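[agent] plan:
  1. take the single chain provided in the ticket
  2. run structure prediction with default settings
  3. attach structure tokens to the ticket
  4. add a short note for the reviewer (M.T.)
[agent] executing step 1
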Amino acid sequence: MPTQQEIEKLLQKSPYSASNQATLEAYVDAQAQGQAPYYQDANRSLLRIYQFSSQSADPSKIALILMLALLEYPSTDILAFSYLVPARTQKVEPCASVLKCAKLLESCKFTEFWPAVAAIEGDNLLKNLVTNSTQKMQSAILEVLSLTYKSASVAKVSEALNVSSANAITKLSHPNVESVQGDKIIFVASSENTKRNRVFQEGVDFGAIASMMAKVTAE
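[agent] step 2 finished; step 3 output follows
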């Protein structure tokens, strides 16, 4: 398995050389298996190589790259990568399902996201990546909620995270969760959620989150 340092040297020398394809594909697999850190530049380079030589493009690797980018939410890497993937490939499974999940996250439709991501089909690498990504995605969604709200109901946060109780939320040990007080999750005060002064008694306005995230990612 190539190391990140080896990949960096490869990209510095010739980032879009066809001779790099096998090495970059191996590194995508390593990322999916949790044996290497996520590396945006390496994955983008492989997509560009596929662009230059479409006959050699591996749809399963494209799906993995998109899924790895999805797991960086709220990063917009997957949006940038989608511009490097042909429209015909985007419409074919499993890429179509991964991109559907990305749109649900972008719109902060968290309750719809969970069944959609569970329905993704693909090779064993992709299936295992999806299965093993639950806690990471829960933490990412919790991060987004904490950026927007000072507090929210346990019921709504549980729904967004696809968990059944406040105890399950507490077990995530997210640094932005200050406490659970009765039926409310209290988030650590920040310049973002304090500035907005949003405290929802009846639930979480996911539309407001989507609007805020659109502004954040545009900056």
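[agent] step 4 note for reviewer: Strands lie at 151-153, 177-181, 184-187.
[agent] ticket updated
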